[in-house]
Task: inverse folding
């Protein structure tokens, strides 16, 4: 079945440093979504990418969808303590396939 | 507030028991998804219902079952509970059947502790 892996599993950064998490799927995706889960909270939708090579920005966050639509990345510039949480990618292979969530990257920002 | 409600927020029970978790989707959403999240783990997809019908099945144990009612709320039944079933159970909803790009809106979760 479809597998979606994320690396790294954990990341500690100093406040102000950049952070990147990578998402890799075993199959070609029709679209990919990113979610953020704050400690003790529930996953919250951040963004959705559909086109091959698509790049979207949300303030300090930059999201990329790979040309082959099998990988994606989330880059945070100049991290802040409010960025703390676990970031999940979620891929959909189209048709009526279930969305598969990635393994998640837990980000800790040290003030 | 995502608009998805889940009850109860917390549940403590004993091994061998049976519990029911309830989820009400956002107004207008037809799909309901159930996920299990163990401590410091990712989201394990259990099952999806769309407009009352089972749409997709994930890693759901035979001891677990779910249904979606005509008013679109859903219930997840967990029976013969084991210690390892202790986890956070999330419900999410979306507008359509999930075959295309769709946002899932998550509820606050039910934290289950099996003693």
Result:
């Amino acid at each position: 079945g479809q597998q979606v892996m994320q690396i790294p599993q954990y990341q500690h950064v100093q406040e102000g440093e950049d952070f990147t998490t990578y998402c890799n799927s075993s199959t070609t995706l029709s679209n990919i979504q990113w979610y953020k889960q704050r400690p003790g909270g529930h996953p919250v939708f951040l963004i959705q990418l559909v086109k091959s090579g698509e790049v979207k920005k949300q303030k300090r966050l930059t999201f990329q969808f790979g040309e082959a639509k099998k990988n994606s990345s989330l880059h945070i510039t100049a991290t802040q303590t409010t960025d703390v949480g676990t970031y999940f990618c979620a891929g959909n292979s189209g048709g009526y396939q279930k969305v598969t969530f990635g393994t998640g990257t837990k980000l800790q920002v040290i003030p | 507030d995502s608009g998805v409600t889940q009850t109860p927020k917390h549940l403590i029970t004993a091994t061998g028991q049976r519990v029911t978790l309830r989820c009400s989707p956002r107004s207008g959403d037809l799909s309901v998804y159930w996920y299990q999240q163990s401590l410091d783990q990712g989201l394990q997809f259990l099952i999806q219902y769309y407009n009352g019908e089972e749409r997709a099945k994930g890693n759901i144990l035979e001891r677990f079952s779910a249904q979606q009612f005509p008013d679109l709320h859903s219930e997840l039944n967990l029976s013969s509970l084991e210690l390892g079933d202790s986890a956070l159970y999330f419900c999410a909803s979306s507008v359509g059947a999930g075959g295309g790009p769709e946002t899932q809106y998550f509820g606050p979760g039910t934290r289950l502790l099996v003693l």
